Amino acid sequence: MHSLNPPQRAAVLHCEGPLLVLAGAGSGKTRVIVEKIAHLISAGRYPARRIAAITFTNKSAKEMRERVGKRIRGDAAEGLTISTFHALGLKLLQIEHEPAGLRRGFSVFDADDCAAQYKDLCSGMKPDAIQALQHLVSRAKNAGLSPDEAAALARSPRELEAAELYGRYQARLAAFNAVDFDDLIRLPVQLLESDEDMRLGWRERIGYLLVDECQDTNDAQYRLLKAIAGPAGHFTCVGDDDQSIYAWRGANPENLGQLGRDYPALTVVKLEQNYRCSNRVLRAANALIANNPHEHLKTLWSAQADGERIRIWECRDHAHEAERVAAELQFLQASEGMPWNECCVLFRSNFQSRALEKALQLMRVPYHLSGGTAFLERAEVKDALSWLRLIANPDDDSAFLRAVQAPKREVGATTLARLSELARTAHLPMSRAVESIGLLKQLQPRAANALGAFADIVRGLRQEAARVPPADLVRSVVERSGLLAAVRAQCKTETQFAMRRGNLEELAGWFDGPRGAGPGELAAQLALLTHADRDDPGNQVRLMSLHAAKGLEFRYVFLVGIEDGVLPHEASIDEGRIDEERRLLYVGITRAKERLWMSYAREATKWGSRMKLTPSRFLDELPPEELQRDGADPVADAAHKRERAGAGFAAIKALLDA
Length: 658
Hints:
Helix 2 packs across helix 3 (58-71), helix 6 crosses helix 8 (157-175) and helix 16 packs across helix 17. This protein is 51% helix and 12% strand. The chain has a 7-stranded parallel β-sheet. A 6-stranded parallel β-sheet has the order 3-2-6-7-1-8, with helices on both faces. Strands 4-5 form a two-stranded parallel ribbon. The chain is built from 29 helices and 17 strands. The protein has 4 domains: 6-93 and 186-271, Rossmann fold, CATH 3.40.50; 110-175, Arc Repressor Mutant, subunit A, CATH 1.10.10; 310-373 and 536-657, P-loop containing nucleotide triphosphate hydrolases (Rossmann fold), CATH 3.40.50.300; 375-520, Orthogonal Bundle (PCRA, domain 4), CATH 1.10.486. The radius of gyration is 27 Å and the shape is globular. The protein is an alpha/beta fold and 658 residues long.
């Protein structure tokens, strides 16, 4: 703890009463949380089993667990909870499943499962209209509202329609003994706020709460925090209102201010020393964000050197912009031996990556575009997980429908529709209906035989689940279901088969979890994982959206498309949401450790016509003395272009010679 700066040390040592740590970008907030956990345990204030640290991503939770493991030796940290909000909600529901109206082994529906239910409930409606209603339902859940509460607060016919759909959707989930991601927060809030004994029990279970990225909490998550922390406020919330960029998915940055109103004894500690960026980058970031209103003012500073001025490029169009970025990357690697993975190109919207990819490929710059197929989205992995979900929860019709067709059997859509009708009439889940000889007799003989054989396999695997380790069960599912044989038949080469078989073996490895954890619990935990948890690009330039870049840092950062209508986004300008767009650019600027480039185009082609573009209004908010604009030094600009052109020609020649 001796190496902490004074504000960091104050945050660690403050253990009486509620605490808000305003942690600027790169100010060492994770270290403060880790040190505070260590202090709470070593000082005897709380045993590890009564401490919970909450983050927003599984990746962050994993990193924090690793750092705590290095900081606290032995078994002193045994029982410590470090998880996401959703994982904490899942844990609570697994313990309190009966009051929540759930049975043990309930399923957590993923995005595809939920979309399928909405599509079925809104039969005949256009996809865009269904998606809009689904968004309204999710927004109501994130606000912690029940269907009746959502209906009472509806301000338009569309919101009233969404509330009615919400009620039918929840009835469908209940029939499947399932919840969705939003329920993992909403239901615990509902339980804790309505049951005092349960609320007091969980306050005893979690004596001290640490919440990272508190500015990103939505209303339901904030209520969960209050329900667990209680009126005494035994918590440390860490956040930065200047990095609140997720209002579009329900985050409410005003929760930081609400803490002071709900907890008048709240102590505020500011972490303003930045350990990441050059001072020049920080001065630009401070000047930009100063244009936003603030409840708690802070100014980032660094003990590092000023560094190079920020380069501002004016480009002809987005193709020219992409070419300049690619040439600069090629030059940096050739002249400085820079590892590719120390560079990042950031953009406001995903469509902006297309020109960049083309230019990088031409210049032979290796890159990784965030947003590829996640491990858990691979077909064979999702198929195996559907089997595991069905084994754990016979009521999960969504899992049944995928499993019964993975691999394909002599069961078509018409048969499944008829089976669904028979199951509904008999008040049975579909997996139980296929065990009924009487119901199967009402189907075509070939399909009935195939469904009966499927039911036998599921029954055998369910019996096996009770006596074998989860990882071995996964391997049995892969073999006995026919999944592995189907994958083999689909693959044209041994290499392709080895890769997909390796995915299934990796999935089995993920189930080497705690002893006694059944397939249902582990499958539910896996459902919480996100793409970011599997995103390992290796030594390649990172291409990603500004939203995806939060929490990351790179030596060299390129911000492209800094134009009005792009950043700030056109919709944000129309709707008066400029403040969040400014915070988004602030996040992008503070990803740069050493050097930063910002670029905009003069023209773009839209609907086949050339149109003029306007540089972003945010560029005028940056201090001119920190910038190096195109044209300010013609001699230096000419030398700069010659160097990059030489690197570009060399790369193209190498491509042609290959």
